[in-house]
Amino acid sequence: MTFKQGIFYQIYPRSFKDANGDGIGDIKGIISKLDYLLQLGVNYIWLSPVYASPNVDFGYDISDYFSINPEYGTMADMDKLIAEGKKRGIYFVMDLVMNHTSSEHAWFKSSLDPNSPYRDYYFHRPGKGNKLPNNWTSFFGEKAWSKNADGTYYLHLFAQNQPDLNWDHPMMYEEFKKIILFWLNKGIKGFRCDVVNVMCKTDLENGKNRLFLKGLEKYQSTPKNHMYLKRIHKELIEPNGAFLVGETVMINTQQANDLLGTESEKELDMMFGFEHMDADQFLVKWFKRKFNPDKFNRILTKWQLELPWNANYFENHDQPRSVSRYGSLHYHKESAKMLSTVLLTLKGSPFIFQGQEIGMTNVDYKSLDEYMDIETKNIWALAKKLWIPKFYRWHMIKTVSRDNARSPMQWDAKGGFSTGKPWLRINHNQTIINVEAQTDDGNSILSYYKRLIKIRQQHPVLIDGDFVPLVIKKGVFAYHRVLGNQKILVVVNMSSKYRKFKHSMDGEILLQNYPPLEMKRLRPYEARIIEVQNDQV
Ligand SMILES: O=C(CO)[C@@H](O)[C@H](O)[C@H](O)CO[C@H]1O[C@H](CO)[C@@H](O)[C@H](O)[C@H]1O
Ligand SMILES: [Ca+2]
């Protein structure tokens, strides 16, 4: 099973399954659900960080890359998880954070001493007069520098507890070589590389004036970044038959192709782009605009046509739930199935985020203290400072907060996630949206995902076929996948209105999310996968 043939499933361990009743998901909980993932048809699990961490950014602030966060279990549990997965033909992709560590990491603690050999593992710099070393701002809407006790400052593109690593330091590659080989030797098959295209800084001079992410041009996909990715892929990944999927922010298709490298000098094997995620925002994600499906589908089509292979996703632990964002709660089942139809028939590796397979929605929290995400709390405070009225601040976090994705998995109607009090409240709609209710219901979203994954595995055209656009109009999105004499037509309606579709839909219907009906019009959020005659060959 190559990464190109596999179905990927992302687990956010803190919210997946709690096995010891402390309200926090853990590795034993994941082991207990491997058969569920096997039945769903999953081949690879991307595991968000389980390393030791003070949890300021819930794992994306790593204090020790060689040990497991005790809340999630032990290294023995991790070895068992990998072994139990292997028994079922399910392999693991670890999350690798190379841009920053936790400020609790031994390297950083030691680096606070100016004479420490670790001093230049980070960017400790003196201020300029009473000013910060430069004007850069962080991804979490703060200044990108924080003060050390000795009056100097250190750089952090994310939270102040996530100091950036200095990849100009000759030891940095050696350190991550040890980390990568440690986990590859444990039998994992690949890495999801966190914000992997911001980790090398050309210099620390002031950045151009821009509303958000001042300094971006100083660290986005720099030449040194490309050099390190080539080296990691050639010296560590290829010799171990592994692969890299990169989280690559703020890039266009040209920059994406550069980050794929070349046949002889590979960098990333695939990556998560963000252009489709930005289709429903003004400037930044906090200012939402009405979802325009045609804009969304034009962006998807561009990436389908301009990249040889994509890592396709509509959800992850940083994004709101797709059925709430791109679908409809009124047509909950139909729209969740429609979105999955596109996700699993686009060219590239499909990534399903935990709970997406049952149509989990954005959370129904009523007050700020129900939210746990540092970025959400930062933005609330920043918006308050900017005099944004309370009703709109509330609208911002309700629609955009990352906690929309992180509420505990809904296994059954009354708390299958944990016997204890969950670390983050479960959505009250677990009474109707849960795995147990959908498992034996042939018409459920879960059953649809299972059939869809089978169809994908049985039709090589859906894996290796060319993507041939046909229609993007008024919410209708249609395209062919073509491989030799195999040809499949995918037609979906991403709107709540009935829509005309004038092209032929003759052929064998492999799957649809509505009962069959001889009709030229598409019903709200309708989706059809049709095997058609390939009259071109
Ligand atoms: O959610 C975002 C900002 O609003 C994204 O830009 C996100 O910060 C960015 O995609 C990087 O995300 C990754 O690195 C972060 C820092 O490690 C971590 O908080 C995210 O969870 C992770 O996916
Ligand atoms: Ca637990």
Automatic annotation (TrEMBL):
Record-annotated Glycosyl hydrolase family 13 catalytic domain positions: 10-406
Homology family: Belongs to the glycosyl hydrolase 13 family.
UniProt xrefs under InterPro entries: GH, GH13_cat_dom, Glyco_hydro_b, O16G_dom_2
Pfam families: Alpha-amylase
Source organism per UniProt: Paracholeplasma manati
Descriptive protein name: Alpha-glucosidase
SUPFAM superfamilies on file: (Trans)glycosidases, Glycosyl hydrolase domain
Domain of life: Bacteria
Coiled-coil portions: none
